[in-house]
Design brief:
The chain has helices at 50-60, 242-251, and strands at residues 4-5, 34-37, 66-71, 75-78, 86-90, 101-103, 112-116, 125-129, 133-138, 140-145, 150-155, 158-164, 167-168, 177-187, 197-204, 217-221, 232-234, 238-239, 257-261. The protein is mainly beta.
Length: 262
């Protein structure tokens, strides 16, 4: 059966905070809560042919670097690299109007590439045709340590930001695993429950399967409750002090890998 994947309005579990939408250079939606979104970094070279990107990536690859792919249009994702059975269909943009980006799992081969998917269950992968995406190298990484309640942002392997965070409660824990950033948005009301900015992730809540019409997407965002930082208090999202999410918003491109560890 072919399924339609729709990434909901940062109706993220966003600490299950609420529904938002976005205006960017190419797409406008009607909700008033979000004003901007960041797309694929224009400082990064992209190409339809994966070989030059992959060859350069392999020569310089270190743990914080990863390969990402953005959709050149709607994508059919397959169980195997043979085009026999579509696993899911993915729109060319997220519901926030951001170009759809997928994390690349391994080396592109024979016209196919395996990608990480922003769907349930967490950790889902599938295969897309290489000609349907463009590739780029993400040189940054976010590491969320739930035990320490900290978030680190690394660029080229060097830590450039470290902050205390609020995480999911024992009833709605923040899911561990390897994910990537799907959206990077600014809120028109910086005093909202999710602060001035939010990053949408490919992660889904293990306990919340629907919120405000969304799919329980996990996010990284600010807060209007500073006392929640350092606590197990959210519905699964990662809360940052507003000054820290503001810095991340300026630095983090979509496609950035996010490791959430226990």
């Amino acid at each position: 059966m072919r399924l339609r994947s729709v990434i909901p309005l940062l109706a993220l579990a966003l600490g299950a905070c609420g529904a938002v939408s976005v205006v960017n250079s190419t797409t406008t939606t009607t909700d008033d809560d979000v004003s901007t979104t960041r797309a694929v970094p224009d400082t990064t070279t992209t190409t339809q042919d994966p070989r030059p990107v992959w060859e350069g990536f392999e020569k310089t690859r270190t743990e914080p670097h990863s390969l990402a792919a953005y959709a050149r249009g709607p994508l059919d994702v397959f169980e195997q690299p043979d085009g026999a059975q579509a696993k899911v269909s993915v729109e060319a943009t997220t519901i926030l109007g951001t170009v759809t980006v997928l994390g690349v799992v391994g080396e592109p081969r024979d016209g196919w590439v395996e990608v990480m998917l922003p769907i349930r269950p967490n950790g889902s992968t599938g295969w897309v045709r290489s000609d349907d995406v463009s590739f780029y190298v993400a040189d940054s990484r976010i590491v969320v340590d739930l035990g320490e309640r900290t978030l680190s942002y690394l660029v080229d392997g060097a830590e450039v930001l470290n902050t205390e965070i609020g995480i999911g409660s024992r009833y709605n824990e923040t899911p561990t695993g390897e994910y990537f950033v799907t959206d990077n948005v600014s809120l028109s009301n910086p005093n909202s429950a999710w602060g001035p900015h939010a990053l949408g992730l490919s992660a889904r809540s293990d306990t919340i399967t629907e919120f405000n019409g969304g799919d329980g997407i996990i996010g990284i965002h600010g807060t209007n409750n500073p006392s929640s930082i350092g606590a197990n208090i959210s519905l699964g999202c990662v809360r940052l002090p507003n000054e820290m999410i503001t810095v991340l918003h300026e630095m983090v491109p979509i496609g950035t890998r996010v490791e959430i560890r226990a």
